[in-house]
Amino acid sequence: xxxxxSMTLLGFDYGTRKIGVAVxxxxxxxxxxxxxxxxxxxxxxxxxIADLTEEWQPDALVVGLPIGPEENETPxxxxxxxxxxxxxxxxxxxxxLADERLTSREAWSRIGGIAxxxxxxxxxxAAKLILETWFSAHExxx
Length: 142
Fold this sequence. Notes:
This protein is an alpha/beta fold and 142 residues long. The chain contains 5 helices and 5 strands; from the N terminus they run βββαβαβααα. The chain has a 5-stranded mixed sheet with strand order 3-2-1-4-5, with helices on both faces. Helix 3 (103-111) packs across helix 5 (120-141). The protein is globular.
């Protein structure tokens, strides 16, 4: 009997100027920061995302969903939802949303001094944490 195949996922920390990206494996529930893509003319770098999906061949995508302090929708919540719909429309992959509260703060604490020299690393680390949050929540649902 063949062993079950582990799903590969790409995670996104969507922002108004840049998007952090990470890759993860469902089997190990771990993720690795990949890169940061800058918006092009106020739109996601679709060519960069297409290159990453071609390279990593993900089974699904995960987008961090920023939720306000009182569990309310914010303009960034709306923007992240729109980005997730666009991802699905362009790539035809399942797109999941994951609570991203405190991921940037946690990314800063994990990276520390490196972030002061290269702030873009925060975004890809936040994407890693978003994926790991989704893995944890997904595991609890099963």
